[in-house]
Amino acid sequence: MNAKTQKHIVQEGTYIPELYSYPEMPDGQFIKTVKVRDVDVENGFPFLDKSLKSRLMGFLINAGIHLLVYPVSKIIYGLKIEGQENIKKNRKLLKNGAMTVCNHVHRWDFCFVLMASRKFRMWFPAKASNLETKDAVLIRGAGGIPVPQTLGAVRHFNETFDSLAKKKKWLHVFPEAARWDYYEPVRPFKKGGFKMALRYGYPIIPMAISYRERKGFRKLLMKDKPLITIKIGTVILPEHGENATKNEAADLLRKNTHAEICRLAGIKQNCWEAEGD
Fold this sequence. Notes:
The chain is an alpha/beta fold. It has a single domain, classed as Glycerol-3-phosphate (1)-acyltransferase. 35% of the residues lie in helices and 14% in strands. Strands 2-8-7-3-6 form a five-stranded mixed β-sheet, sandwiched between helices. A two-stranded antiparallel ribbon has the order 1-9. Helix 5 (136-142) links the parallel strand 4 and strand 5. The radius of gyration is 18 Å and the shape is globular. The protein starts with 8 loop residues before the first strand and ends in an 8-residue tail after the last strand.
């Protein structure tokens, strides 16, 4: 389940960066983080902070993503967004909420997803340990909700997403769990996000970040990193088979989403299985 199972084969023209060595396990830690504070998400943590300060910070950070990060991404990473017609033609289907799913391969990848979705703000599960780093304010402001471990805190975590779903808010998940910068294959997916999509009846909008060779003046900006494309795929509906259990339905949704993201990324045969737990 957590091992490479077959040869990796990509479509002609798919660019594969060869920059780093990655962990052996597909959800292993690649990004080194530095703890700068203690945060207890298990006891009385405000998963959805409704204070004026928090709401103002969220507005400013998301405005910054659209007004600053987007043009900078266009210049530095040559950001291309493809497939937005898949969202436009499904507006009625998505009006009651949706979940975007993407491979986790860049520090700004959530920003890319937000721009591609043309939503001002979305919410996403985040590693609790990330709130102990210097990026905590940015993560929380962008819509990050930490994933706790204890039963009581998990109940409050679920209630938070329940309240967002009732308001028809869009959600996002990175089901690979760990961020591996510029990794080209699509790693196995954790099941939790797909259970959430089924719980809320949310259609899934698959997205894939892929890469292009850096050329022209952009070589002067960051010559060792590739350019970025994010592609939006076909909307996938959460369906319960006639006799399928919830776990079986989540497995099928995970499998179909993984296959579509592989296709979008230019992969003919992915080296990893879809299942990651």
